[in-house]
Amino acid sequence: MVIENLITKSEKETLKAGNNFAKSLNPGDIVALFGELGSGKTEFVKGICDFFEVDELVTSPTFTIMNQYNGNDKSNNEIPIYHIDLYRINKKEDLKEIGFEDCMFTNNAIKLVEWAENAENLIPRTSYSVEIKPSKDSENIRNIIISNNK
Ligand SMILES: Nc1ncnc2c1ncn2[C@@H]1O[C@H](COP(=O)(O)OP(=O)(O)O)[C@@H](O)[C@H]1O
Ligand SMILES: [Mg+2]
Hints:
By secondary structure, the protein is of the alpha/beta class. The protein has helices at 11-21, 41-51, 92-97, 100-104, and strands at 2-8, 30-34, 66-72, 78-85, 110-114, 128-134, 142-148.
């Protein structure tokens, strides 16, 4: 079910959209992010990490595949955040090597997965999907569609 359909006009607005969306997240949730390279998935993730007061610099895990951050929720409970980028993954064996499946089953953490389509059926259940579509008319405009799959 689509719960949000919005337009952002800058990187900052996408970050803010991620921050606002993060309110609905609970430990154990998996968020799948879809959209072409440079569409703004990582910016959206930065907004989520911002909401959970992540101190570390959030960068794209394109080469590291998986980054872990120590977040805190509004009641100051620790909440681990896994930021995963499967852009460079082209076979399931690669996912086994990095412990992807174990990570997906951690109930206390929030998991944010870019290029989730490359995981095939290794993602157990996605709580939310976020699709980011660049505009054909303007370089800085994005359409962000958020679905609740619960
Ligand atoms: N409205 C917007 N939302 C998000 N990013 C934008 C927007 N307009 C321009 N950008 C630029 O697009 C790029 C998005 O990069 P990034 O978030 O790393 O994309 P992805 O993770 O989808 O590959 C950044 O360089 C950012 O400055
Ligand atoms: Mg990215």
